Amino acid sequence: MSTVAVVFEARSPLRRVTWALPVAVLLLALPYAIGAYQTILLAYGLIFAIAALGFNLLLGYTGLLSFGHSAYFGVGAYTVAFMVKYLHATSMEFFVAGTLVTSILVSVLFGFVCVRYTRIFFGILTLALSQVLWSLAFKFFWVTGGTDGLRVPAPSLLGLRLGAGEDKIAFLAGPYYYYVLALFFLCVAVMWVIVSSPFGRALQAIRDNETRAEFVGVQIRTYRLIAFVVSGVFTGLAGALWVPLNGLTTPDIMHWTFSGELVFMTVLGGFRTFTGPIIGAVVFNYLKTYAVGFTVYWQLFLGVILVVLVLSLPTGIAGTAARALARARRAA
Amino acid sequence: MTLLVTTGLTKSFGQNIAVNNVDFTVREGEVLALIGSNGAGKTTLVNLISGLLPPDRGRIEFRGADVTDQSSYERIRAGIARSFQLVNLFDQLPCLDNVALAIFSREGKTLHLLSLADRDTAVWQEALEILHHFGLAGKAGGLAGGLSQGERKLLDVAVAYALRPKLLFLDEPTSGVSTREKAPIMDIITGIVRSGGITAVIIEHDMDVVFSYSDRIVAMHQGAILADGTPDEIRRNDAVTTTLIGSPVQP
Hints:
The complex is a heterodimer of chains A (332) and B (251).
Chain A: H1 3-11, H2 13-33, H3 35-62, H4 70-87, H5 92-114, H6 119-139, H7 141-144, E1 150-151, H8 168-196, H9 198-208, H10 210-214, H11 220-246, E2 248-249, H12 256-269, H13 276-294, H14 298-312, H15 316-331
Helix pairs in contact in A: 2-3, 2-8, 3-8, 3-11, 3-12, 3-13, 4-5, 4-6, 4-11, 5-11, 8-9, 9-11, 12-13, 12-15, 13-14
Chain B: E1 2-13, E2 16-27, E3 31-35, H1 42-50, E4 57-62, E5 65-66, H2 72-78, E6 80-82, H3 95-106, H4 121-133, H5 149-161, E7 167-171, H6 179-195, E8 199-203, H7 207-213, E9 216-221, E10 224-229, H8 231-235, H9 238-245
Parallel strand pairs in B: 3-8, 3-9, 6-7, 7-8
Antiparallel strand pairs in B: 1-2, 1-4, 4-5, 9-10
């Protein structure tokens, strides 16, 4: 076998599909096995996974740590809430289209400022800009509802009012879960193509060695800006999917602490693997839900878990699992 | 035919004039060696020409066009590539990907977001051929960070070569490698450069390498050009032998 063939065999898309298919089937079948509450929890996890996938395009693939991704999640959530309040819109497809427009606009604007810097300067700038949006949502209460937030009823899906006259829990655990799942599959597929594209390779090159990337003809700022916008759009879309599930959006979702949660999810799962942020988001969602129910000191509990994980599993859950699997294969 | 001309090129860092009013010419097809002691201004001159640093004064013409105010990206597109004194590679990517990225960039494909890089077999085949020319085909799948210093130097040049430049700057291609490895590395590099019709400027401290592999030598001292001539002329140049070499060079 030629060297190229050997290298490509290890990267073959078929290898990934072999485990992705059973997971997809499992996600499709789970609502029949786990009750409504667990299905809704899983839907939250999948939505956060979309946001974490977007976030990791910047952290894992471009080497930029954003502390301001709550802004794009909030933009998605508030776009839907504003469309409900001011346009009386009910269509989820309309919400998604609107969110794509607003998240592109905001991430282009913020990205244009932020990608001029790297490392701590980039992180602080993203944090500061997200806090500006948070304070706008917090202070302009006559528009945003302030801390009371804005309510979002069950939307129509594909033009069908599946939630009308039905138990809302049944709607969220049924049609809405599958709607989220379909968009989750789409986002995973699109992100996988992006990171496997020549553009994705260029981002990894920028992450590894900015100077060298510049001297193979990669325009660093342009590529970083595109990655920033793609990342913002994924996170915005997650926000748009989250708000009908939650039924309400408040400024809390734009606060920097939610950006910290996205960092936590990604580090927990492993930011050097494609699947790491997905696993991290789903696990984090369960951890947080049960920690909140278990103790009022849930933040302390999660903080301790993060410290322990960073020290014991520096490559995250997915990275550690991949290593263990590789070791087992070698031993076999 | 003249490929590159700099006129009155000057660059200072505070009070220190690193490159002082340099008029420098590179002719098409030659292998030119740029020599000088540490701090003579060789690397700064290459940084100015490649676009890593902006000059304070002066003009850079490449293939008859003024490129002084162009970005490094535009100069690469025009045909200027370089390797680095301290090897600059994508250490966490396989060697094959290091070279392939340069090919994707050369072909303007790095902005393709929705096509799978692995499907572009022509690019990967060319990358493998380049690695083969540089004696690195066996390391194609290994991470660049796992190579020896000599291999890293070769891969650094291979990445620059994959851009198919008209003018290639090689900043100390044998620094940090053993004496035994120097000649094989230079044989590979100059062989590929000459057969590919590429003009090369080599910055080098090792005088054996300089006199063995170059067609012309430019000597720099304290930011200015001290001498310019064939290897024989430089050997006989008293200013060069006393200032840079220290003793007459044996033919």
